[in-house]
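User: Continuing from earlier, I have the next pair ready.

Assistant: Great, send them over.

User: Here they are, in order.

Assistant: Folding the first of the pair now:
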Amino acid sequence: MLKKIFFQIHWFLGITAGLILSLMGVTGAIYSYESQILKWINQDSYVVQVENRPVLTPAEIYQRYSNQYPAAKINSITVAQDPSAAASVNVVKEGARRGHTIMINPYSAQALPEIKGREFFQFIQQLHRNLTVGPIGKQITGASTLMLIFFVLSGLYLRWPKRHSIKQWLFVKPKLNGRNFIWDLHAVVGTWVVIFYLILACTGLYWSYDWWRNGMFKVLGVERSQPQATATPQGGQGGQGGQGERAEKITPTELNIALTQSWQGFNQVGRDFSTLTMNLPKRADGQVSMSFFDAEPQHERARNNLTFNYQTNSVEKLELYEDKKLNEKIMSSMLPVHRGSFFGSVYQFMAMLASLAMPLFFITGWMLYLKRRNQKQLTQAARQGANSPALDANQKPWLIAYATQTGVSEQLAWRTAGSLQEAQLATQVKAVQDLKPEDLHNAEHVLFIASTYGTGEAPDLATSFEKKLLTQHLNLSHLNYAVLALGSKEYPESYCSFGHRIAAWLDQNGAQALFNPIEVNNANPDDIARWNTALAQSTQLDLGSIQVHKVYDTWTLAKRECLNPTSLGQPAFNIELKTQHDITWEAGDIAEIQPGNSQARIDAFLQQQKLSAQPELIAALRYKDLSQKIHGFFSTEELLEQLPELPTREYSIASIPSQQMLRLVVRQQQSNQALGLGSGWLTEHVDVGQDVLLRIRSNPSFHLIDDNRPMICIGNGTGIAGLMSLMQARVRLDYTDNWLIFGERQREHDFFYQRTIEAWQSTGMLKRIDLAFSRDQADKVYVHHKLREQASELRAWIDKGAVLYVCGSIQGMASDVDHALIDILGEARVDQLRETGRYRRDVY
């Protein structure tokens, strides 16, 4: 739950504040190299021709510049050790708090060309700090910076539990496609820039909030200096009060003496320097303050400060930057820390790249949000897509009834409704269990979209419809109908049989078929397209396409182990998969796998078709059905067009997201002396560490109840998978009224996850457990026998509100359990449990 909350906040703030942070990132990257860029584009202002004479001293520069520009009020003079570097004077300028700097020739004090680009960088600075809208913008950028800290920390939290390898954490995988690549790019680049963004955000807030600035001084243990009344602004306005009030204003002659003696005094210090700035004194108090940089300064703010008394010809104060403690250096050099130069040129360049990458997260975050919303809410989107322009109020709506176990039929029902409404036909969508005879009497057109469950059964929630409505005789001669029957050809004896039973009942009651029932094999898009075409022909309308969207994510096979070595039955495997994507599911959901062909199968096909084993062709054939009859082809594209995709396989998920992996229980199946498509792919053909295409399919009819009512889990064989996810979720919620009834062949070999289950029992999380190992005694004992043995206990649990969950094989176990429940509880009560969601099944 905490992870979900953080995720929701993360994306919500990301798509709202992301644009501001992107702007701040780009402008910050540009501004961090202001001095280097200005020097690069203003070579004639920063570099002079070396002459065969000494450069002017500060006193000589003052004298010559004052003679040339007598109206100028000089604040400071800066000279450089490099004979090819320009000097500069800072003069008072109205509206400029720090004055205006003019570059001059150090040999003549002549002004050099005005520096180009200053106004641009001032604009960039204001855009970066306050969006150029003053205090309001400052509050916006400050809040966005606080959000950046949350993004970094929440992003780490959301990704950290995955425990990926260094390669997965730090390297972008260009082979990924679509949403997978976007997520990988977002996460991997985000990992690289974590440290940079934390430093940028924490230091950037120094200028945003006084409380943050004070907190930094306190945390780092640095005493914050207070502004003094005697301070003289660099803009040139004299201070008021203090010593400056007692001293007289300095005369030009005294100023010349002060500069000359201070320059000589600085040289006596004997410290090498790169540049020296001498602040001109405003009062004749004997003091001249200077700041200078070492020959190789740590950064652009690593100033040394010196106060020289020209009256006593002595150094009164010398503060060297290198003598400061680290915490003092940080607090006195916040801008270099912020832009990265404090840590060296390499770090500064990397920090600049990190800042430039800020828009990447805004763009990829938006793309992920849109894709996630599209995939997570397909049925809801279909429902919303059924809204249409104004329809004729007198028009009788087309009734669309669906019977679903996993949600596919419902999605198709709403998409069909949307397609009809776009063609100006009114529609009404209902689940079949909500249908009443009057609904059919009042309708003129009805479309049934019905899944067949198990071995020819109606979906669990539709059993009441079949028992109550399909047994009635109604006069439906006024009704036109069509049926879309969903099923799986893996069960040829019962393929789409529930849909056909509905069609037969409608026909027997006089309804007129618009066209013959259309069968859909495992949501095959071609079959769905035939439904759309038939509707268009019968209505003579141009209908939009109807599709069921399937998007697979890339998972990695992390672990595979046999659960039942030396068992009498086929080997069953514990399969664990991990992904780098942010994917969640609920206990009871289904993993739909896209199986692939083994390399041996692909090699045999290539040899049969006399094709060379090119990597691109091998990759294209990986998920194709190679059993199809091949006609002549002139190119690999024509060949691939003849080959449909391999059918998918579905498995109950045995874990919950907080376990940081997706677990399946897969038993090997044999078909024509070869491993089954899905089981062979997962248990043998894919190597540990290789990728598996998988998507989570919501299975709401088997989801966990959201309260602490008792739960009875019944299953056999690999059906333990779906029950394990339910029990894991209950254990995390500390709900202890749990009863497990499980069956397999032999306890010694086939007690899947025995240690975990016994641990739950010993800690009281599993209140009851009944095991049926059929081969451990002469008379075979199955799950339904245990149910009958505990009939009185079962009734007691049901009376307390218990919810039944059945997972496993439909043939044998599930049907026998159903018969046992009817014998124990009565058919009426079992039907009531089914209709109220207290009897839930995931059977196959």
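And the other member of the pair:
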Amino acid sequence: MNKITLMATAIGSVIVLVGCETGTTSGDTSPLTGAGSETFREKAESLVARMSAYEQMNMLVGPGYALQPDFSFGTNYEALTNVKNDIPGTVGYINGVYNESTGLDIAAVKLADGAAGVRIDPVRDGDSDTYYGTAFPVSTLLASTWNLDIQAAVGRAIGTEIKEYGLDFWLAPGLNIQRNPLNGRNFEYYSEDPLLSGMMAASAVNGAQSVGVGATVKHFVANNAETSRNFVNNIISPRALREIYMRGFEYAVAESNPWAVMTAMNQVNGHYSGQWRDLNTTVLRDEWGFDGLVMSDWWAGDGNYPEMIRSGNDLIESGGVALAYRYGEVDALQQLENAYESGELDEETIKSSAVRVLTQSLKTPSNQGYEFSSRPDLVAHAALSRTSASEGIILLKNDSDVLPIDRSSRIASFGINQVNTLKGGYGSGDVNAAYTVNILDGLAAQFTVDSELSALYQDHFSANKSETDFNGLSTIIECSEPPLTPLEIEDYVTGNDVAVISIGRYSMQGRDRANAEGDFLLSADESNLIEDVATAAHAQGKKVIVVLNVASIIEMESWQDNVDAIVLAYLPGQEAGNVIADVLSGEVNPSGKLTQSIPVAYADIPSASSFPGVDTDADGKVDTHYYNEGIYVGYRYYDTFDQPVSYPFGFGLSYTDFEYGSPLLVDNTLNSEGAQGKVSFSVDVTNIGGVAGKDIVQVYIAAPSGRLDKPAAELKAFAKTALLAPAEDQTLVFDVTAKWLSSFDPARNQWVVEPGLYRAYISKSSETDGVYPVTFSVTSEIVVDETTPGALSLPDTVGDFETVHND
């Protein structure tokens, strides 16, 4: 057998893929000047010293928006200072400075939306050219690759498009936890697990910043629902905050040094995130050492902008008057000036924020004099979109090896989603791409697809689709299923070899999903379609494959037994149809694995009864959201309390099979080196099947009983193999540091590794039954880190709201 040895991606390490495009690989340096971040800070300090307090405050507030004649919101150019080469579609700005008397000429910085790719306006007045962004797969699908190199490459490509289109900052990645599948913005987030989320985000940041643009991790913290997101008060225990909702941010800050962190709109424990000093200064800066800028989400908070600056939130976006939520209030800059003149906001606080903002602004292409081309390599990036998406596709079911489908097969393709295919989610994460390959066209490029059935769906779509504008950000296209009788379905199945059914689900910023038919549940039309197609196909000895082109998971238990194979594609980007066809044909051997558990029923989710919150003041709006499950989110809950799931976290099938050798404990320096120690494991992985493929190996560690209640096991490391040929094997090595083995003890304000016997499961998913563990011991308690007493505390009025405990 051929053998490959790989040091696996594990806790405390991030792989950055450096591609063919020029640039450096450090998030701290400019590829144009080679100057380190300290040099930029020193330059910023000298420039700020030449500014008036009013010029400094102007840098802390975006220009905001102005109401246009058509009642839309447009940039308030009267308040925008020193923008150069403005780009249509820029979502926001950091004001520059221009002062002839002092010689200051600092360009405004342009901010770019789009977690799945840069979002700019494709059409410009007086310009016959078009300017598209590449629509990459959404974050959940990228995370499903479990491949940090791929995420870094995508981040690098997005950063390149931002730079070549004349922009400066990427307002991504998002790494909020997928606490509940009904969160309307889950598609922008990676996982229910903080380790996987943090590692993917760090790779995205490193990739983007390697070409000299800034990245912004968001939303800090706990934007886990869209209902009332601009004011809801999330009540979360300090332990859950630190172990689940903040730990991914901590990892990303440590391993990628993002230029910016964006605070969330919501409140946490009675404080607006952008106005809470505990978050923005005590934890983020003092404990974690973050030295970038902190910006608010657009129109976030209760309008107390001086408090925002005092908290350590340096940049108020979008600035101006909060048109979306509080139309008519005094604008943000005027508030800061009033507070300064009254002594409520002191000069040193203003200066500190101005230095942090300017330090990052100086690094940007706009202030480095970069001559952008407006011509990024969209062809190469489309190819990257296709390959990255195909590696994240998850094969959930494949009875009797129905997949892959032979290229000579004739396909009866059902479901309106094959025509109305979804590339991404709606809202600020949408991308104005040049095209989207729908599923029907993707299948037709590789198979013979029933033309009469295809025409039926295309005609129905053309005649019945509806289009709705979503806040000028997206066009939502919807269409019903065509009315097919069981007899018609039987005729189409009879004339073909295999049936494929495409099911679609969109979701969006600003609105959560529902546990209802046509959303988390199948609609009646979809249920009938699956049942009728399956009945007809199975009566003829033919197979049925379901493709899920969905923003987030749906209920599957009620229908999955009716079909032979299920492919979870999420939202694969602009190459969607080609990506799905590549997997169905076997051109790509699927290697994605779930980054979120799929429950049997919505009621099984630990947050089912609390999401998205309650109306405590009887005004008809959700205003308080109790995070009742504490640290028991996702698989931590299901595995600890033996709650069955349809598919466990980390699960995914392949067209080949992998065998793990006996895992080994390589080293344990925890007892000798304490907080600087680590534990290491290795395992041999062999492809014992008939085709080349990749596997994802996961390390779950079960901690001993101690003072703190703990989940049954937690993900602590993972690695993806190379593409292994049949009979080829690879040795993976995993390192888990004391820091990432520790749990948070809120009573003592400490991260601790408790003594006792630990069990490490080298597993294919979080379902570790039948997996023989490797054990190691910690002889005495290790205090890994001290935290600030009282930070992130609950309001005094909150009682015992956590209902899930592992006592």
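Worth noting for the second one:
Residues 148-164 form the longest helix (17 residues). The two ends are 48 Å apart (CA to CA).
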